[in-house]
Amino acid sequence: MKDWSLQDIRPNRTRSRAEPTPERTMRPRSRVRDEDEPQEAYRPERVTPPDEVVEEDTREMHEIRTRNAMHRAAPEESREYTPSVGRPLRQKMSLAPSPVGKYLRLAAAGAVVVTAIILYMVHITATAVITVVPRVLDATVEVALTAGDGSPLTYAIITKELEARAPVVANGITDLSQSASGNITIYNEYSKEPFALTKNTRFESEGMIFRIQESAVVPGYKTDDDGSVVPGKVTAKVFADTAGEAGNIVPTQFTIPGLKSEAEQYAKLYARSDEAFTGGFVGRRAVVDEEARKEVRERVDVMLAERLTSSLSEQAVADQVMYAAGAVITYTDEIETGTSETEATLVVRGTIKAPIFSARDLAKAVLLAQGERLEGAFVITDPNALTFAYTEDVTSLAPNAPIAFTLAGTSRFVAQLPTSDIASALAGIDVDDLQTITAQYPGADRITYRMTPAWRSSFPTDPNRITIEFAILE
Fold it and tell me: Domain of life, per the record (predicted)?
């Protein structure tokens, strides 16, 4: 007899599929998961010979294929499941979606939304710091310049008035009647030929009549390249016809009453004053010795000049250049009567005027005079390092009257660049286009940037989030 091993044993294979056991009748598939429980470990009832095992196994496989084909063809609700006989049943996996997958999908969607929000916030809060290195020129300056009418370089005048008092010995009191006086500038827009004015020619302003005590000749006008008229002018001193303080008028414009019959002459020959008239007085005043008055006046003038000069720095204006050496000081004085015939006060009023230039216009004029042809606007970083001197004596300054002066020394010229324009030009562009923008500003030697966040490839779209810094390389 052949010996059998446990590997040759196929348990429970002799039972026919046509005769199902009472406990394993076919039931609907949907109930298998709930009712079928895994069988306990199998205990073989008998040993089947190998030949029967092969035959039974072949028959069993055929029946399984037939049953599976019928099951797939049947409607969903009528399908039944017949478990394999003789082997443990496997618990069937549910075909419903897993809740874990749902949570993963929600988490992925949330991550996308959060990432989009972060990217948007980075976009609207991004900043850039632009460092501009301007062009610099160090030069030794020695130039002669003109400013005012007929020159490309213009200037304005800053004015400061101060008063000082000093006691002086009086030699009694007397009745005084004195006319006001002052300087006027007479203009000729009437003809290209000089126009003569005789002694005692009248000038009128707000009903007050003033006269010149010397004859004057007003030069004819000139024409600029653009066709505009540059009037000829001359300065003269006038005195009020009437004594008293009414003649102490503020700067104003005058007409010439003697020319009223000629409308064109009357309109184009006129005068202006740049300073208030003084000296008009009627009343009792202390009598002061002229030598004593002059001595006190000199001492007061020195003190007043120091105060006036120091006051110029208080009127400094950004982007403007002013030289103290260009200031002109004028004085007037009067005597105030004291409480007795031997007491009096000398009142000195000082007026300081100084030309003030645009920093860019002055630098441009100096560079042109030096023969430098640089593109863009420049300024002098330390204009006071240059020495200012008039080439002719200047005793008074009138608005934009022609002046000639020299500048000498060593100074640095630095290009000026418009920060707001650069920020607007860079807003929203790609960083690779930075050099294209740099080429639009010839005064810039180089332009670099720092971006926050650093990985951005374009500048912020809002110019207000772009900061411009200037760095001068030594």
Answer: Bacteria
